[in-house]
User: Fold these one by one.
Assistant:
Number 1:
Amino acid sequence: MKIKSIILYICIILVVLAGILFGAYRYFFGGLTQDKAFAEIAANQADRLAVNDETDLENANIVNIAIFGIDSQDSDKGRSDATMILSVDYEHNKIKLSSIARDTLVYIPDKDVTEKFTHAYAYGGAQLAVKTLNTNFNTNITDYVAVNFSEMAEIIDLVGGVEVDLTEAEREQLPDNDSLSVGENITLNGKQAVFYSRIRKIDNDNARTSRQREIMACLFRKARDMSATQYPTLIRECLSLCTTSLDYTEILSFSQILLQKDLKLEQFALPGDSVDAWGGIMSSSGAWCYVYDLREASDALLTFIYESIYTNSDIELPPATVDRSAVN
């Protein structure tokens, strides 16, 4: 009888623990919108993402994730108004952010057209946008996160806004700007930060992507400075606002690097100063675009992400998918 009571007691404890774990899972990850179809393609049909074994550096302890900011209320549709590659670099203990200008002229596979990169997401969602990245920049990305800009404002408000260096010309482009001053470390709320990241009229696409990286860098710093008791709410709320190919175990694994005390954050942009770029009019549509040698751009991007792992490799990049002859 005593043995039966002990067994019953153990079973009750196990049931309670299982309930607690399930409740914790639902609390943290119940709002996660995982793109399981994309994850299935990445796992079993990598050719549909243009993953190229000849330029693969998968043995490097570096994970690359595409981040798309979508100008639509639906993260499955719309153009990618902001595109970055988030590199979680365990090899060098770094987080790296690489921007690709939205107006970069690229070859869009499946559609078999040469157009602005921003159109790839509208044509085929995350799958075609990632395939376009891999095709043109010789990356081998198999994961992504997408967030529309209205949701991005909510994420920024969750951390209490972001601090940026604000000029008068930028201030004039922002909503509710009467109380804003200009200078360093000016706090913007979510709505203002989204407008800030999308400013186009006062300068160029390089400045625009720089502002976008500035916002992302501030978000990373804010997340690192938060106390452990604040993380549950942040994780739960942020995951509910994103669509991603990652599952919860992968997200937890990647987040561990934020706890490293000597973690560095580095930034890079294309075209930036790495390659010669020209603005021109596409012959096919008459639209303005950025044109640069995408083989040179690939070389600069891979050097930034992988450092000596790439430069010491024997990888031979294929010819550029786009060159200056594509514009008038």
Number 2:
Amino acid sequence: MSEAASIAEMPPRYDPNGVEERWYLKWEQDGRFKPDLESEAEPFVITIPPPNVTGELHLGHALTYGIEDILGRYTRMRGFNTLILPGTDHAGIATQNVVEKQLAKEGVSRYDLGREAFVERAWLWKEKYAENIRQQFRALGCAFDWSRERFTMDPQYVDAVLEFFIRLFEEGKIYRGWRVINWCPRCQSAISDIEVDDREREDSLYYLRYPLKDGSGDIVVATVRPETILGDVAVAVNPRDDRFRDLVGKTAILPLLGRELSIVADEMVDTEFGTGAVKITPAHDFADFEVAERHHLDMPIAIGPDARITEVGGPYEGQTVSEARVSVLRDLGAGGYL
């Protein structure tokens, strides 16, 4: 065959499909991505941030894992005993939500299926998208050791995490305590910050009058969430605010419920917001929780896991948050506190 004939048969454009897949398979079969357990070379290990099985990889994943792949290949060529450990993450509530959306298209809910059948559907989703993710990583050419792949619900993985937490507890580095969290009343579960869709909106700012216990006057606070006064335990002012200096240490009375509220000084308070005096509702506001911890205040829970008012709210118990807002505003106005 002449050189001219060879050139004529060469495809005008490079087609990666017939080349890259074949070479990746060979590299994987030859163990090119595995560390040498007998090697005395310095180890270099990357555990990839496991992608969620909620869907498929996107361009952001390609960027992140591409960097890790480059680092792994670079250190391997420098003589390090290199391992890049792949895996996927169950993603908890996020995966539950995508499965529920799939069920909704079929006209059923997780309650219709029952627990066991729903869990089975979730595992079917996981297997489908975990396999898609594996093939996407291979298509990217990522030099991962697939013989060590992990899923965040693998028994060995769960045992390792549990062991780590036990060690931290025994060393006094973790403890169990109350915190304000993101809670979904539909899922009946805590959810992470990255699963929260924050939205800005214009809202009404309500000014509420809290009488002083000694009858010497009142202190006015401003809030956009009047229904949360049912969980109030204090009023806070800035220690540098001369307007309220003489009120620090006194006691105010919570309208509608008659609960005694301490008036405390705390640097958290923005003197430019509202009146400069802030109601403290520790169980339902992140900043208020920190104030309550600093001042050793009670933290009554006025809104339950079902998004309804608890017994802490007295006559408003059982109302939804929206219903309680209407009722509280009505009664505050009737009592002359609004």
Number 3:
Amino acid sequence: MATVTDDQLYPIGDVARRTGLSVSAIRFYADEGVIEPTAHTDAGYRLYDVAAIARLELVRTLRDLGAGLDDIRGVLKDEMSLRELASAHLDVVEGQMRTLKARRAVLHTIVNQNSDARQVSLLHDLVNMSDDARDRLLDDFWTEVTGGLPIHPGYQEHLRRTRPVLPEEPTAEQLQAWIALADMVGDAEFRASVRHFYRQAFATPRSDELTSPQMVARSEEHSAISLEAWKAERAGTTPESPEARELAERLLRSTGLMSAEMTGQSMDEEQWADLRGLLSEPEANPEVTRFVEGFTADFGGVFEPFFALLATINDVPLEELWNTGPSDAWVAAALRAGG
């Protein structure tokens, strides 16, 4: 096939072979004002230049993707360079890909859950939710599970920031995780379990202080240190190393400061010594160990599936959202190594 050049005009038969369109289709698009011929021969035969051929190829692709003539006219109504035409073509293809990913996520969920007709409609609505609608769904969840609890208003705002953020082009896995998360937060049994957990956790006269912005900041700082120590242990850092000893001391200090915030009393030297002994010899304090393990298990039983889905949607490592910190044995050995 001869090379197409910018200054050459081609008869409709050549254009049909180059574009894959039938001659009748090319005539139809001309008659409908979609792509008109560039020129005509003296005998009235239609001729097309390279730009018109490119537009016809785009029309063919758009039609293959299901675009109607009105949509195609909207793309072609202004003069465009070939680069602009390619960009318009890419926008359509990417839009189709996003739609197909959403459909794939719905179909996977239908197959896995054996969904009924009512659920299918709900799943379709979920994957096509706007960012604002997703925010409202999570806001409603946090409002219900914390409503009426004796906690600081700032803590409720802190919880509301724990939400999924779908990227502009989510993967099928992220869409499926969002469907599962939306189903989870809408489930009455899950809401009741979360509400029960918070009622038990904050069944204290000082619940407002324990959920104050200062306490939240202290807790987030402690979580960051715990995550850092967890990563160090996972990377094989020995408890006797300077890095481990420094992390253990930071954990000790952070634990003491959190305890002071919770009790409303400063730590004296004796209490710091007791805390060091508790963390250095956890096996000597089984009651405390069982309490901590029990609280962690209760929290994990309620929230771990939630955070696992959230991590997938937000494309972050699960340990950044859900992490129990380094092992007691690693921290204890590091503290003992530091003397």
Number 4:
Amino acid sequence: MILRIQTYGRAGLLGNPSDGYYGKTIALALKAFPVTVTIYESPEIHIAPNVEDNSDYPSLEAMVQEIDRFGYYGGIRLVKATCRQFFKHCQEHGIAIPERNFTLRYQSTVPQLVGLGGSSAICTAAFKALLSFYEIKSIPLEIMPTLCWQAEDELGINCGMQDRVIQIYNGLVYMNFEEKFFTAHRHGRYERLDPALLPPLYLAYDPNRAEFSGNYHKKLRVLYDAKKQDLSAAMREFADIAEQGRQALLDRNHALLATLINANFDLRCRVLPVSEMNARMVYQARKSGASAKFTGSGGAIIGTYDSEEMYDNLQRDLEEIGCAVVKVTVATD
């Protein structure tokens, strides 16, 4: 039997980057950007390489250019690390894994390294595929994101929990990573919200601004440790924005939601370094009256718009600076 499992790129709507610092966030899964894992029984374990694992280049210059943009690593190491966490967890909790091997292939449509959760989408899709292939049903849903996060952490990838949560749960999720609860339970409090509560959303990204998000999170951790008092207060403020956003969604207060989206980015600019080219995307979008903030570490933005006329204007303005623009559909399957 051939199994095909999908997860999706994600957008942080509010609260990020406080998820890495016991904060609160709201995120959603992006239907436009699926990652598909295909898994089927085979005599030996085989993880098939994808374009992210490319080792063929037209020239030495082309190889160096790709390394400069995307680093040295592809997706195979992510799959391996996920497999290891899956196996170790089952072993430690007395969960029997049937004795059969598999071939696993992955294919990603998530734009690379622009803050849309491409790496974590590979991990979470692989984890879901292993669950289906081995018919394991005893791992609690809320623990699954933690195991995927541990796989990336093991590889030295600095990241918070948000991406893995939304890519395991799909849909629209409010997340509370309060430290005492998270430390005691190895997961946060995750609340599904109805995507129908959302106003119209757009997403824009520029592939030419690609940067390995782990670098951003590593720099953020160093900065946090150096200025802990100031940034701890900022992370609490990010978390409060997410909490207010949850209530705004429940109240269908779309005007407040737009204000909070803008406030999230403005706070980021006050307390964290933001590159001029990434910030330009936000300001270009705001020219039309739309709200805007980063979806993740930079390179992509998300926001609300009030009308088709506003969408047409922001699309024109963003395309002028090389961005692709799409209307957001939330993946709920």
